[in-house]
Write a structure and sequence with these properties.
- The protein has ten helices and eleven strands.
- By secondary structure, the protein is α/β, with parallel strands linked by helices.
- The strands form two sheets. The protein has a seven-stranded parallel beta sheet with strand order 7-6-5-10-8-11-9, sandwiched between helices. It has a four-stranded mixed beta sheet with strand order 1-4-2-3.
- The termini are far apart.
Length: 267
């Protein structure tokens, strides 16, 4: 059992939680559910004593796939974990890189966000894309690192379920959609029509702006359509004010599931 936080493998894992994590593809996954979802991508698994009994089957599955299993003390596991109460298992997984030209030629539905800053939103959008049946997610240059532990936790395993393209320039995305025959439909609070009034059944890339600035200048004109999500505007008795916009992750969910609905019901 490893009881020292100075162990080389432990130190390497701990670097994945910090800002100076480097440019490698390593991703920390915490807890039995996240480890189970990332099983095909795991390289190393740290196991605290209590998890050897409670999660024996999962640990054996990992060993059977060639994953290096390292028994560690609770204190050592706590030094790696990004949560206050770690659940006994922390894995180190490898996240494969994907390029636009890998995913756009075969995609029917792509969710793209330009300038996404919040890791919680990033993970939620990945989870939404997975649930809505999207074929890929694109986070443009300047967006948050999807390997951020908060993003990984918020994705609930979906980070490993579909291709994620990171760091693509907005111009590359627009040109790629044109080249590969995808309609580019942006969502914006000042959209021309409601999201339910646009045909989202053909191959489509849904484009959303970041939390602070929305769509960058000049991008609306390059899209095939710009939609809005209609919001409640009737005043409530005794109160004033109305919502300005939706959180970007909520907007992605609303529009993505409308695309999924249209695909289920072609009429």
């Amino acid at each position: 059992m490893v009881t020292s936080t100075g162990n080389a493998a432990v130190k390497a894992a701990r670097r994945l939680t910090g800002r100076r994590r480097g440019s490698g593809d390593g991703v920390l996954v915490e807890g039995p559910q996240a480890v189970r979802e990332a099983l095909d991508h795991l390289e190393r698994l740290f196991v605290a004593p209590r998890a050897f009994d409670a999660q024996a089957r999962l640990v054996l599955r990992a060993q059977g796939r060639g994953v290096e299993v390292i028994a560690v003390s609770d204190a050592v596991l706590g030094s790696i974990a990004g949560t206050v109460t770690p659940q006994g298992l922390i894995g180190v997984a490898t996240l494969a890189g994907h390029a636009l030209d890998d995913v756009l030629p075969v995609a029917g539905l792509v969710l793209a966000v330009a300038g996404l800053a919040d890791p919680g939103n990033a993970g939620t959008i990945l989870r939404t894309a997975d649930a809505a049946g999207a074929d890929a997610v694109v986070l443009t240059a300047g967006s948050v690192d999807v390997r951020n532990p908060k993003a990984v936790r918020a994705s609930a395993g979906s980070l490993f379920h579909l291709p994620v393209v990171v760091g693509a320039a907005v111009d590359e995305l627009v040109d790629g959609c044109r080249r590969h025959g995808l309609r580019l439909v942006a969502a914006d609070a000042r959209g021309d029509v409601a999201h339910t009034e646009v045909d989202l059944r053909p191959p489509t890339a849904l484009l959303f702006g970041g939390e602070a600035s929305g769509l960058v200048e000049g991008l609306r004109e390059r899209c095939d359509a710009v939609v809005r999500v209609p919001m409640h505007s009737r005043p409530r008795p005794g109160f004033t004010g109305r919502p300005e916009s939706l959180n970007v992750a909520a907007a992605v969910a609303v529009v993505a599931f409308e695309a999924a609905r249209q695909r289920r019901d072609p009429s």
